[in-house]
Amino acid sequence: MKILNPIIETHGLRRTFRTRKQEVVAVDGVNLTVHRGEVFGFLGPNGAGKTTTLRMLATLLEPSGGDATVAGCDLTKEPHKVRERIGYVAQGGGTDPSLTGRSELHLQARLYGMPAAVARARADELIKALELDTCADRVIGTYSGGQKRRLDLALGLIHKPQLIFLDEPTTGLDPQGRARMWDEVRRLRNAGTTIFLTTHYLEEADALCDRLAIIDHGRIVAEGTADELKRQIAGDVVSIGVDGDHSRVLALLEAQSFVREISHEEEVIRLYVDRGEVALPAILRILDGAGLAPHSIALARPTLDDVFLRQTGRSLRDAKEAA
Amino acid sequence: MRTLRDTWLIFERSMQLTLRNPAWVAIGVIQPLFFLMLFGPLLQPLAGAPGFPTGASPLNVFVPGLLIQLGLFGTAFVGFGLIGEVRYGVIERLRVTPVSRLALLLGRALRDTVVLLVQAVLLVLCAVPFGLHLNVLGLLVVLGLLVLLGLLMVSISYALALWLRSEDALAPLLNTVTLPLLLLSGVLLPLSLAPGWLRAIAAVNPLSYAVDAARALFNEQLGDASIPLAVVILGVLAAIALVGASRSFSRSTA
What we know:
- The structure holds 2 protein chains of 2 kinds.
- Chain A is of the alpha/beta class.
- Chain A folds into 2 domains: 6-225, P-loop containing nucleotide triphosphate hydrolases (Rossmann fold), CATH 3.40.50.300; 234-301, Alpha-Beta Plaits (2-Layer Sandwich), CATH 3.30.70.980.
- Chain A is built from 12 helices and 14 strands.
- In chain A, strand 7, helix 6 and strand 8 (194-198) form a beta-alpha-beta unit.
- The longest helix of chain A is centred in the middle third of the chain and has 16 residues, at 175-190.
- Chain B has one domain.
- The interface between A and B is medium-sized, with 30 and 23 residues.
């Protein structure tokens, strides 16, 4: 049985930045609950407030308003206690290229209060667990992307935190490195660590996360399991490709009772229907009857990208490219 | 206790980085050495001139100034290294750990002070063959003054680095500030040669007190009033700068 015991709880968490001209609201009243032992995915386009929220929860940035409990401690009143219980791995890591992985691990352990001998043993343990044996005594500047990322993770795990924040843990990794990182995340979760991660990859969120939240313009626009979020999309998605004028097709299909929602992006029309396999022949019949010939038609279960599109009005892929 | 322990850990790490390229420590002494070798000889005929005590080598007036110059230029630019560390994410990584924020500054400042002392001793040793008369007690007190000056300058440099976060902004700012500080300190020639108005401006420059004290210490005037005055001025300023800079380390680095 899963114990739904929150490890992170925020109420109205806010952060504003003052620029020369105006005040910018980066995070605008975020309410989040993360349960102990789950992998929680935090999605959003660049600039949506993802990293700002993460940095506040990791004690790096003071909230401008609201309150939060992280790992059982008050974020603003006891940041010191929070720090002892959490790990944080920034997107770019945080190591000096001219030091060795082993010396950085050793220092990190010492900073968490371990005596020298314990620190050495803990560093050895993580070097072995994360297969850094071949590179631990080389300077970090010589590491491959995957090795560097695993070292970053090892640094965040050195004190066996109950909760670890991973900011874009697989960005920039090759497929092999990504698969490796997914394995590590799953292993951590099985060992009882709570993982709070941000990602740009929806397939990653789908495969790895127990629950998700989507943030846009500094606000949470959706929260739940991937399946719950997909179910909100209402059934299946039928994508119809039409050449030229799609307004007739839109008007025609919009009127159908089985169509729950309709949207279009350039020449692709998306229909949200309850049962795709029944709707498909009907759609073809209707279009044929009106003398309209689509050049493509596809049926799909809703993906997280559909969820994202609906909640933020843009596809995550587009949002990423635009940023 | 925690602060002391963390300071030592950060010191060790910083020292490790410095010792990966120990050549930089020596290169830092080259500029004052140029002054010693290429400018110092011009002062020989000035022995006995105003501001230069009779009987003593003019180097005993010039080298103390060079040491203070080293204390200024050898330390003011340490912020550049910190900007690199911010960019690598090192500071963020350390700030998520329970490490003492004061230690993040003190560990680095301690490393910089050790480097400065090594450079100062190298410079003094190089000056002896040129005719510098050495008073060991005086030298020790000057090194103490350099520690205070070093702590003051590195704290300012680190605080500015954390504030500006850009080498392009830090370099012109430091150059603009350090050059007048240097010229108004009487490093090159004694300020007793200066007209009244220049001396009046120099009187608000803490460096000029350091230079006066260092000169007294190199000229067998160990009881001179300029010495305790310089210790107090530099000590108070260094303490203020340390507190300010350690606050910059604990504040968010957005």
